[in-house]
Amino acid sequence: MQVCIIPGDGIGREVIDAALQVLQAVAGELPLETATAQAGWGTFQATGTALPDATLNLARSSDAVLFGAVASPSHAVPGYRSPIVALRRELNLYANIRPTRSIDGIGSTRSPAAPVDLVVVRENTEGLYAGRERLEDDGDTAIAERVVTRRGSERIVRHAFTLADQRRAAGTTGGKVTVVHKANVLRVTDGLFREVALAVAQDYPHIALEELLVDTAAMRLAQSPERFDIIVTTNMFGDILSDVACIHGGGLGLASSANIGDRQALFEPVHGAAPDIAGQGVANPLAAIGCIAMLLEWATRRQGDGGEIYAQAAQRVRAAAAETLQHGPYPPDLRGTATTGEVTAAVIARATSDM
After folding, report:
1. Nearest to 97 by CA among 309, 272, 297
2. Which of the residues 9, 190, 229, 239 is marked catalytic?
3. What is the mean pLDDT of residues 101-112?
4. What CATH fold (topology level) applies to the domain 1-93+263-355?
5. What pLDDT shows up at residue 164?
6. Which of the listed residues 15, 46, 84, 282 has the most CB atoms within 10 Å of its CB?
7. Where on the phi/psi map is residue 335: left (φ > 0), alpha (ψ -120 to 50), or beta?
8. CA end-to-end span of the chain, whole Å?
9. Which of 94, 129, 204, 310 is catalytic?
């Protein structure tokens, strides 16, 4: 299996370096090759493109991508396009998977804090992020088109129900999917998404179904996240709700994500480039290390019966990260003083203690 490594900007470079150290430590005899490529704002400033053809070609020819972060400008820059959005679209990575699991003593301060184990499944290629924006000739009116298709809706909802089915079979949860939309206002676009979701649900009668308007879902996610199992929704709603959810799992410093397609996958921590702390050696590497576990688990499913070697490595990473979260050392965003390197070293020591 070949993995394309794209460190990107800011702390992306630091946390991806940490994640690769962990991967190399547990790799053993894994049939795994890595190759590094450039993308991001720094690459755009140096070359005039944020996603060079060489990087895109390497990503296309690889089985998976490990992506760090990009520091996108907040204002329009001629010629600049977000490389992560472009990669999702070019590789047809239509399912964004954001798990949140509560950790004793870390994260939500709700009292009492019931255990949380949920996944936000977000459509990744359409919606308001489809890139169809324009400025009218008068220069005073900006328009964005929200794109929702039957095909895109069906495949993301089916992915959500399949995941709920897998979690139910594994005994993780009872099996429930919450369809989130705003069809009472967005009657055409979210109306289509809702219609398709309810139709797909008929194929999974053993999975509980509920639907919520996005504003109600956000409130309940903040107040009582333990009530959710799988949340499936459109692109921008999923972007927002997954960030709300991650608070209950320790915040952005622990939030890992997967972008899944039919053939390939891309894994990225969701904390962004964090330019305010870049280069200080204090970035939390655990979200990126969590991406390594997700990558290895994806490889396990992809390999089928031959994937046990990946599963063992994934289990080592998961267990070592969990033990580090229980006993430390902790980086500043978890109210500690440990450096990126110290946290990484602790994870590696625990992951390789019996190798």
Report:
1. 297
2. 239
3. 71
4. Isopropylmalate Dehydrogenase (3.40.718)
5. 97
6. 15
7. left
8. 22
9. 129
Which CATH superfamily groups domain 99-260?
A: Isopropylmalate Dehydrogenase (3.40.718.10)
Element (H, E) at 350: helix 340-351
Greater confidence (129 vs 177) lies with 177
In the chain, residues under CATH classification 3.40.718.10 are 1-93+263-355, 99-260
pTM: 0.93
Structure tokens at 113: 């804090």
Q: Which two tokens stand for residue 255?
A: 């939030």
Contact indicator for 192, 153 with CB cutoff of 8 Å: yes
Q: Give 352's pLDDT tier (boundaries 50, 70, 90).
A: very high
* Bond from prior residue into 225 cis (ω within 30 degrees of 0): no
Does residue 217 sit in helix, strand or coil? helix
| pLDDT level of residue 215 (50, 70, 90 thresholds) | very high
Q: Does the annotation count 17 as an active-site position? A: no
Q: Is 182 a catalytic residue?
A: yes
Catalytic residue flag (residue 310): no
How far is 225 from 213, CA to CA, in rounded Å?
A: 15
Write down the catalytic residue from 9, 182, 204, 310. 182
Q: What is the DSSP letter of 170?
A: T
Instruction: Give catalytic status of residue 239 as yes or no.
Output: yes
